Amino acid sequence: MGILPCHFSCHRNDESHSGSYHLHSESSTPSISSQPSLPSVPSLASTSHRHDEKTPAIHHKCIATLKNHSYVFTLALAGKVLYDGSSNGEIRAWRLDSSEHGDRTDNIVVATSNSAVKSLVVLGDKLISAHQDNKIRVWKIHNHEHHKYKCLATLPTLNDRFLRCFSEKNYVQVRRHKKCTWIHHVDTVSALAISTDCSLLYSASWDRTFKIWRTSDFKCLESVQNAHDDAINAIVLSRDGFVHTGSADKRIK
Questions:
Q1: pLDDT, mean over the chain
Q2: What's the pTM value of the predicted model, to 2 decimals?
Q3: Disulfide-capable partner of 200 in 28, 89, 195, 235 (CB 3.0 to 4.6 Å)?
């Protein structure tokens, strides 16, 4: 078998190939001068200067120590009066002197009960206390010295209890063989909070519920049952209407 002659030129045109290569490179690769410049990096001098500035130190010092006769569980402020609630059921008012070295020992027991005071809030001319005996008490604040405050109401109020007791739907199971109206706390009332418009009082309890009371007549409006898996120890309200509760179940809701 013979070898057929090739009719196609096998010679490579280096010049034309090279020319076409360079032409393709120039058309596809933009010039460096046409590339957009990188944004300039701002000077770090001002930043380092700010770091060099020392933050002013904040110091606190104790200017007075107020001694009570029992364990103090809670505090509340009303102007220049400091209230404390203690384990012996007493609520004590301390007159706070504005001077740094003034006498801050002027105090008086303004209210007493037979149960430890767990929380205090001030609502206008009323002082509201939460107690270990499952009750909330409302006291009328007197401006006269050495006058004990009068208890205006114990929550739930007698009228509220009377209106709820006749309907079976108002009762909830609190223990295996015990029922109670839903307006009652059945364990220690541990915390109180007032809404921003002062129209509502919130109470939290070791019975795992928190309740909402109308401050105009102290009627119970709502009870959130089983809000936690364990005792509720704290409650706070935000300005945008949210309620935050903290519990012994290691959760905040």
A1: 82
A2: 0.75
A3: 195
